[in-house]
Amino acid sequence: LLLIFAASMLLLLIACANVSILLLARGTARAHEFVVRAALGASRGRLTRQLFVESLLLAFAGAALGVALGYWGLPAVLRLLPPGSVPVGNLLAIPVNVPVLLFSAGLATASALVSGLSPALSFSRPRLTATVRTTAGVQSRRAHHLLLAAQVAVTVLLLAGTGAAVRVLIDLYRTSLGYDPHDVIVATINLPENTYREWAGRATFYERLRDRMAEVPQVESVALATYSGIPPQSGERSVVEVPGLDMPGDEAPVVQRISADYFSTMKIPLIRGRVWSDSESGGTPHVAVVNQTMARQRWPDESAIGRRVRMPDYIKPPNPYRLAAPGSDGWFEIVGVVGDTPNVGLHEPPAPSIYVPYTLMLSDSLNVILRTSRDPLAMTRSIREAVRTVDPNQPVSVYTAEGALASAGWARERFVTLLLLGFAMFALMLAVVGLYSVVSYSVSCRFKEFGIRMALGAGRGRIVNAAVQPAVLAIVAGLFAGLALSVGLNKVVAQWSIGNLNDPVVLVAVSLVLFVAAMMSAAIPASRAASIQPVDALRTD
Predict the structure, then answer these.
(1) I want to staple 273 with a disulfide (CB 3.0 to 4.6 A). Which of 324, 336, 477, 513 is the partner?
(2) If phi over 0 gives left and psi between -120 and 50 gives alpha, with beta otherwise, what is residue 179?
(3) Which helix (H) or strand (E) holds 9?
(4) Which residue in 229, 240, 264 sits closest to 338, CA to CA?
(5) Rounded distance between C-alpha atoms, residue 360 and residue 285, angstroms
(6) What is the C-alpha separation between 205 and 333, in angstroms, rounded?
(7) Are 106 and 7 in contact (CB under 8 A)?
(8) Helices 447-455 & 460-488, crossing angle to 10 degrees?
């Protein structure tokens, strides 16, 4: 929310600068009108009121158009966004808030009036001199260049933030997950209270459920995992005692209780050793598989295969939620090492993890993981019907592995990137319009001057340089100011996790994009300055 507010305020400042540029240009063109009005008796207060009324009409018209676009256009825009673009389950269900719209309209109106304050005070002064046009034009062009530099500086800041967010999103997508989340759907089973209270009955129910799920058409493989078994948030930290090693409590490994076909279903590679067989899943001695991080941290100079660890949680007395298998003594022999997968979030490195057979401790919550050969969400009805054939009273909820990724961070990063990208595009468009207005206005004000210069022998290149150079200098000044702002505010925006504004690649790319856009916007009025005919210019009064 703070990020949205900050970006909105920056965009509002750019819009205010743009409106001021346009009002200054319009006021300079009407300088003769204001002198005539003053000569006929109009006071400065009356001229100021006239300019404020004009600004107020402009503000009301813009605010009304903005409210209409927000009220009717926002739902249409939200429907065009791809699924998972925003970190809200159903954004379309959130109504457009009328008080927020009114506040936005009031803020837009106030901003338009403030941006019109300087032109109103400037052009309401009666100047009954022959040089009124020249004086007003020079002062207006100076104000134009200052506003243009400020506009460019804020635009650079928004573009830098957008570039940094895009880099974060790209890096996030490039991060090796260690598993394949595509075409994977998860059915979560939460046993009703007072059902399957014996370990044997609960184990039989889960096995029947897995066998029935495997018979569903287009299901390639099925695996079981108790509690959270889907990356990037999977398992729970538990005490694991390694003989000869002291481990702090905050470094406890993540323990995941799964079936043996979990790794093949999730496409997690087996690095060394093997996975337990069905006959070993409930017998003794108990076996386990560890990830690469645990093997590397606990046994850095030797193989983890054949090592024994002890987990006290598996010798606790049974409780209504977790039923321990008969003969659980807490000791496990490591038989395999698998690849790392994110288990404590997308932004954190994988924690040490140990996988054990789910049958050793049966929870009243279970995830049935299915890899399909078609769109996973199209399998929802078939999965629910399969569960009902095993137990008609058993509720089930369904989600996809890609949906779990989106909920864990991808949706938020996409939302931030799309938001900043939209703001940055608007800011760049406003900056281009502002530059075009400044150069175009400068050419129109100096039309006769350029004609005289060309009549005296000045080349077209020199005329273009005279028309564009002040605006280019303002752009360069704004560019450096924006780069300095980006570097200085890097620590402030770091709390929003949108990336590093000091990234040289981002800053260079932003500078190139802005400079190219600026040169393209200045090309049209510059070409008009180069095509001035001295005879036409000298005929103007």
Answers:
(1) 336
(2) beta
(3) helix 2-29
(4) 264
(5) 12
(6) 27
(7) no
(8) 130
Beta strands in 112-215 (DSSP E): 184-190
- Transcribe 56-117 into DSSP letters: HHHHHHHHHHHHHIIIIIHHHHHHHSPTTSSSSTTGGGSPPPHHHHHHHHHHHHHHHHHHTH
DSSP 351: P
Which of 311, 7, 299 is closest to 161 using CA atoms? 7
194-197 contacts, C-beta under 8 A, 24 or more apart:
196/364, 197/320, 197/323
> Closest Cα to residue 214, out of 397, 364, 382, 377?
382
Q: What is the DSSP-derived secondary structure letter of residue 241?
A: B
Q: What are phi and psi of 257, to 5 degrees?
A: -100, 115
- Quote the CA–CA distance of 411 and 470 in Å, as a whole number: 44
Q: Answer for the pair 504, 178: CB distance below 8 angstroms, yes or no.
A: no
Written as tens digits, the pLDDT of the chain (541 aa) is 777 788 888 888 888 888 877 777 777 667 777 778 878 887 877 877 887 788 788 888 888 888 888 778 777 777 776 555 565 556 656 666 778 778 877 887 787 777 766 666 666 665 544 444 444 455 666 777 788 888 888 888 888 888 888 887 777 777 778 899 999 999 999 998 888 888 888 889 999 999 999 999 999 999 999 867 788 888 888 888 888 776 655 578 899 999 999 999 999 999 999 999 877 776 667 899 999 999 998 898 889 999 999 888 877 666 667 777 776 678 899 999 999 998 887 778 888 999 999 888 888 889 999 999 988 888 999 999 999 999 998 999 998 888 888 777 677 777 778 788 888 888 888 888 888 877 777 777 776 777 777 777 777 778 777 777 888 888 888 889 888 888 888 777 766 656 777 888 888 888 888 888 888 887 777 777 777 776 665 665 5
Question: Rounded CA gap, 324 and 17, in Å?
Answer: 69
- Which residues neighbour 421 within 8 Å (Cβ) at sequence distance 6 or greater? 162, 165, 166
Tokens at residue 322, please?
Answer: 């977790």
In the DSSP assignment, the letter for residue 233 is: B
Q: Which residues contact 427 (CB under 8 A, 6 or more apart)?
A: 10, 11, 14, 154, 155, 158, 159
At which residue do the structure tokens 């808030």 appear? Answer: 97
254 CB-side CA count, 13 A: 26
CA 429 vs. chain centroid, Å, equals 20
Given a contact cutoff of 8 angstroms between Cβ atoms, the answer to whether 286 and 333 are in contact is: yes
Preceding amide of 232 cis, omega within 30: yes
Let me know: does 452 contact 534? Beta carbons within 8 Å: yes
Neighbours of 285 (CB within 10 A): 11
The Cα-based distances of 348 to 206, 388, 409, 499 in angstroms read 32, 39, 11, 15
Task: State pTM to two decimals.
Answer: 0.66
CB 189 within 8 A of CB 366: yes
